[in-house]
């Protein structure tokens, strides 16, 4: 980055809060260790979601039923579920009409600690994921552990994770949109995959993001050019 762009970048960091999706990197060690923005915590009776336009957390809806997300839940910055994520889902499931869901890559973070509220960043190590399909959209859920967590930080792969925890996550995602009167389930989890597959999914979502929104490291120079051309 040229000196002028670096100075402008530093000034922006002082003057403005970064957008949680677009203004923060997925982490210099991604996919082995990623940054995650947490939207909801297990005690939330309300589902919060990032407002993509403003970058603030907003109320999506009250949780309709008794289930609550059993882990910290959020997304990996500068990721996008687009063509590459959808293509992997289609390849693994044999389905031909899969699309990306158009959102950042979701992540569930295991930790022994209780958090009072969402809207914070943390560092997490992916250990696997749930290949979830919502309608005809790929909606993967990366499963990770909080870095240095005393209870879960040692886990390196989903196979080392307590089966009951994975089952609890599967039950939540299969049921949280399911109306009691609905006969057909619109959400399915085709399989649970391990760390290496999770790394592939994350890398694909990073590439999908760059295809959709451009290279983040070029934004300051693009801004400078726009300002000088005015």
Structure characterization notes:
By secondary structure, the protein is α+β, with helices and mostly antiparallel strands. It has a single domain (3-222), classed as Alpha-Beta Complex (Inorganic Pyrophosphatase), CATH 3.90.80.10. 29% of the residues lie in helices and 26% in strands. It has helices at residues 3-15, 83-93, 163-175, 195-213, 219-229; strands at 34-40, 46-50, 57-62, 72-75, 99-100, 106-110, 120-134, 137-138, 141-146, 187-194. Strand 2 (46-50) and strand 3 (57-62) form a beta hairpin. Helix 2 (83-93) packs antiparallel against helix 4 (195-213). It is globular.
At CATH level 3, the topology is Inorganic Pyrophosphatase
Overall mean pLDDT: 93
> What's the total helix number?
5
Strand order of the largest sheet: 1-4-6-9-7
Order of helices and strands: HEEEEHEEEEEHEHH
Most strands sheet: 5 strands, mixed, barrel
Indicate the percent of residues in helices.
25-40%
Which CATH architecture is right? Alpha-Beta Complex
Q: How many individual β-strands?
A: 10
Domain count: 1
List low-pLDDT spans: none
Q: How far is it from the N-terminal to the C-terminal residue, by CA?
A: 22 Å
What characteristic shape results from the CA principal axes?
globular
Strand content: 25-35%
Derived structural class: alpha+beta
CATH superfamily: Inorganic pyrophosphatase
Rg calc: 18 Å
- Please give the CATH class: Alpha Beta
């Amino acid at each position: 980055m040229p000196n002028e762009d670096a100075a402008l970048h530093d000034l922006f960091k002082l003057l403005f809060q970064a957008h949680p999706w677009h203004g923060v990197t997925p982490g210099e060690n991604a996919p082995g260790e990623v940054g995650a923005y947490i939207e909801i915590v297990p005690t939330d009776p309300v589902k919060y979601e990032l407002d993509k336009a403003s970058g603030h957390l907003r109320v999506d809806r009250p949780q309709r039923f008794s289930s609550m997300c059993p882990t910290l839940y959020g997304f990996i910055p500068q990721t996008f579920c687009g063509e590459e994520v959808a293509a992997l889902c289609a390849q693994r499931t044999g389905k031909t009409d899969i699309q990306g869901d158009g959102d950042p890559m979701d992540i569930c973070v295991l930790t022994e600690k209780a958090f009072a509220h969402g809207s914070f960043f943390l560092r997490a190590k992916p250990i696997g994921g749930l290949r979830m399909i919502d309608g005809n959209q790929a909606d993967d859920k990366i499963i990770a552990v909080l870095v240095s967590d005393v209870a879960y930080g040692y886990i390196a792969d989903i196979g080392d994770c307590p089966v009951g925890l994975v089952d609890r996550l599967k039950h939540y995602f299969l049921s949280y949109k399911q109306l009691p009167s609905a006969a057909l389930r619109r959400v399915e989890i085709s399989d649970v995959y391990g760390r290496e597959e999770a790394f592939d999914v994350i890398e694909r979502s990073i590439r999908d993001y760059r295809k959709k929104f451009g290279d983040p490291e070029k934004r300051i120079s693009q801004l400078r050019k726009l300002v000088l051309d005015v």
